[in-house]
Automatic annotation (TrEMBL):
This is 15-cis-phytoene synthase. It comes from Aristolochia fimbriata. It comes from the Eukaryota. GO terms for cellular component: plastid. PROSITE patterns: SQUALEN_PHYTOEN_SYN_1 (PS01044), SQUALEN_PHYTOEN_SYN_2 (PS01045). The keyword Nucleus does not apply. InterPro entries: Isoprenoid_synthase_dom_sf, Squ/phyt_synthse, Squalene/phytoene_synthase_CS, Trans_IPPS_bact-type, Trans_IPPS_HH. CDD domains: Trans_IPPS_HH (cd00683). GO terms for biological process: carotenoid biosynthetic process. Gene3D superfamilies: Farnesyl Diphosphate Synthase. Its EC number is 2.5.1.32. Belongs to the phytoene/squalene synthase family.
Amino acid sequence: MSAAHLWTVFPRAGPFRVPPTISANGCSVSASMVAAPYRSSEEMVYEVVLKQAALVREQRRTGNDRALADVFKDRNMLNEAYDRCGEVCAEYAKTFYLGTLLMTPERKRSVWAIYVWCRRTDELVDGPNASHITPVALDRWEKRLNDLFEGRPYDLYDAALSDCVSKFPVDIQPFKDMIEGMRLDLRKSRYNSFDELYLYCYYVAGTVGLMSIPVMGICPESNATAESVYNAALALGIANQLTNILRDVGEDARRGRVYLPQDELAHAGLSDDDIFRGKVTDKWRSFMKDQIKRARMFFDEAEKGVSELNSASRWPVLASLLLYRQILDAIEANDYNNFTRRAYVGKGKKLVALPVAYARALMGPSKSSRIGRT
Ligand SMILES: CC(C)=CCC/C(C)=C/CC/C(C)=C/CC/C(C)=C/COP(=O)(O)OP(=O)(O)O
């Protein structure tokens, strides 16, 4: 693990804060290419991390849930709302859903409600009606978000999230940022540098980590700072999204989109044309090796935070981390042909990952955790 990478994941925090070196991001790109602009996105994201961590710290200190008005008098309606969220989660994220079943009822249903909101947001730009979506529609979606945070949900799914955010110290910012990510996706189909891509990944996936931690909870025995656990959660979202991008290169290219950093492509002697041509060359393999290496580093950062979570939250997170990380192995096994072959993790591997994750999830926070307090 390069120290430079740690600087990128922990931009201002503790012992890992070192200036970037030539191997920044674990890729063979020059430091000047990634280091200077790299700070801006990271710092912006870090503000959100600090704010979220402060909310959770406050909750840990007082031991009370944030007291918002209980707007839902009709418990049956609310139970129905949460059940519907559970059904959606079970349908679209089976493994994750299975893992959530270990959580306390309150946490479990809140995680479902967050999942459903994220899925609906994603569907706005990725779903069947995506071609009709406009920035105005996203503004309306944001207005709905504000309303539900103030206890005025529009529909049943919103009602579940509205209740969830009244019970857990969830900040609205990551939700707004996810909508911002959708706006970005509407107007942008190229990313000049990893800094730009990082910001996109934060918007559309890192935010999920920040939304989830207040609900999943940090283990009471954990010595880690809230900031460090948030950083790990953020890293998992980034790792997942980078993996998604690497898996879907061909599919995205067919939609005219290239999510790979243009400067790194150029540095590797590649261009959009090579991607549209879709030929696996040695240049492409070497480029992909670096990209995979960087995604794995984000997974590694994330993994360190899992043991700091509440015991029942560790399993679903670790299981999904192990499974998603294996997509990178599958890309390698496909000899880096992510143009016409879809990398996937077979059923057998999934079945092995679940008990492995379960056994590892039994381990609590490490006393000498590198993400612990300094
Ligand atoms: C590590 C610690 C401390 C906490 C974990 C905090 C959490 C729950 C983070 C979750 C991050 C996450 C799941 C982000 C979503 C990223 C992503 C790319 C999801 C892919 O979703 P789909 O588009 O449905 O995937 P497929 O295309 O593979 O079906």
